[in-house]
Input
Amino acid sequence: MLAKSTEYAIRALVFIQLQNWQDKRTGVVEIAKEIEAPEAFTAKVLQTLTKHRIIASMKGRGGGFFFTETSDQMTLFQVIQVMEGESIFHKCGFGLKNCSDANPCPMHDKYRTIRDGFFAIAQSETIHSLSRKVSEGKAVLNRVSFLN
Amino acid sequence: MLAKSTEYAIRALVFIQLQNWQDKRTGVVEIAKEIEAPEAFTAKVLQTLTKHRIIASMKGRGGGFFFTETSDQMTLFQVIQVMEGESIFHKCGFGLKNCSDANPCPMHDKYRTIRDGFFAIAQSETIHSLSRKVSEGKAVLNRVSFLN
DNA sequence: TTATAAAAGGACAACAAGGTCTTTATATAA
DNA sequence: TTATATAAAGACCTTGTTGTCCTTTTATAA
Ligand code: FES
Ligand code: FES
Output
């Protein structure tokens, strides 16, 4: 569904949010480890997010990535848009050049329902809302095992 | 959502079904033109479908692709499975190694609903049901314009 | 029986996504 | 002011998907 880079972005943002709530600023190395993603690639993802003001960054000693007040309450939709665009929310499920109510493909009615449902999730869920679930222990950020 | 090759496969199958209903057997060239896909690539897709008995084929003059009685009523799920596997129906939307009710990611509840909804569509819709919509004029197979 | 029209198969080319590495810029601490 | 820790940037590599081309097989018609 989502591109791998988008998944990394979302997981990284949730982790950064959790760290921020503990008044910690965190860097690439720690983030990559936590979200179980390759370090250099995570750096690129964070660079993209920073360039688009989803998060802010500080270079040098004690630097790292963090949310500002204005970059807070970011919706999943905004993150997806920045990472891979929003074509996923407009695409025809049957592969036609565009999706059209007036000239529907045979999957249109049902596919559109699903696609719009996903759009609704992307609009209603935020980095905040996801992070809250994790901090309340209702959800997990990774599958790091305690064994080994 | 679906791989391009899967989309080509579904569109091709619908067209073959429509042709079969008119007692016509059709070949790669015509299929590729109708579904607006590259000819050589369409040939590969049809080869895969034939190998997995989704459709049957005949070589030589007057040959082409067609459904048999046993390959009829194929669900979208079966086509997807053959073309790209079924990982799409099991994947964690947040990118974790696996999806788990017991150990959910923060997107799990909502994402699972969407994913399962898509699975339900894939199970309930068939090449038959899609083709019927097209033959009844309720849906279109392509976006070929009448202008030009 | 031969020519022809088709699918099957295999090799490979093009492109996009994912991923790595090295250098540069910048902030902080000693 | 210098050493160090960090992000930014750019060049590159790897892999998977999409797409092409050429040869082989097989059925039909002449
Ligand atoms: S026209 Fe295909 S999904 Fe809308
Ligand atoms: S655990 Fe992520 S979708 Fe189920």
About this structure: Residues 27-29, 43-44, 46-47, 50-51, 57-65 of chain B lie near DNA strand C (CB under 10 Å from a C1').
